[in-house]
Amino acid sequence: MRLRPSYKSSWFNDKYTTYDIFAAESGGDGAIGSSSISHNNGQPKPDKYILSFLKPKIVDPPDKNDFSGFYFGVYDYVEAIDPVDSQIYRYTAEFIKPGKIFSGYADWVREVKLDRVPISHPQAQYGITWRDVTNPSDREMWISGSQVQVIDLSSGEVIAERTGYAMDFGQESKDGFRSPWSFADSCINYNPTRRKTKDFVEKVLRPM
Predict the structure, then answer these.
(1) In whole angstroms, what is the distance from residue 65 CA to residue 105 CA?
(2) Which 8-state DSSP code applies to residue 91?
(3) Domain presence at residue 194
(4) Which of 26, 163, 172, 176 is the one with CA 20 to 30 A from 59?
């Protein structure tokens, strides 16, 4: 229901940034293992926020018929509105051999290909959105908070919600080439890799 903005390095020095410091995730700027396919097709790199929710279909399995799921999710498809053209698209992912499409790739190379098709009527039952929940006095103390919600689209009911905060205890110090927000600590010591939206959503919306 709301995509993540593309990464900007200036976020980490901006006390009032709208970037979600707690979740520390961005979209629209590519994903590991999916860059050369897009580059050779003259297409933009896949939105890694969308890709984080998807379980790639294994078209060309590697030797062990498996792949690392660290960067990927558990869902077959995602539906989202592209803010550029306001069109609703359905996104799916495939794990393939780029050598089948382009020459010059070794047989062992595998990449994730993000595909999308326009749709007129969304079929997703649940929606995911996020928002900033801090006020100016929080930001003056270098505190940033965000909220993720999972919503039943048929009823509009919020069925799950996570709110998290992060704070820079250095209070804007840039000593030693320090970028304040990149040193922010989260409430209840959330590991940075477990603040991702997908990790929360997967605890709520479990595939059958």
Answers:
(1) 19
(2) E
(3) yes
(4) 26
Tell me: do 67 and 135 sit in the same domain. no
Residues 131 and 175 in one domain: yes
Residue 2, domain member (yes or no): no
**How far apart are the C-alpha atoms of 7 and 48, rounded to whole Å?**
11
- Answer yes or no: do 46 and 102 share one domain: yes
Q: Is residue 152 part of a domain?
A: yes
The two three-digit tokens of residue 165, written as one number: 């905060």
Report the alpha-carbon distance of residue 199 to residue 193 in Å, rounded. Answer: 9
* Contact partners, residue 104, CB within 8 Å, separation at least 6: none
53-76 pLDDT, tens per residue? 998 887 776 655 555 555 678 999
Nearest to 181 by CA among 45, 20, 33: 20
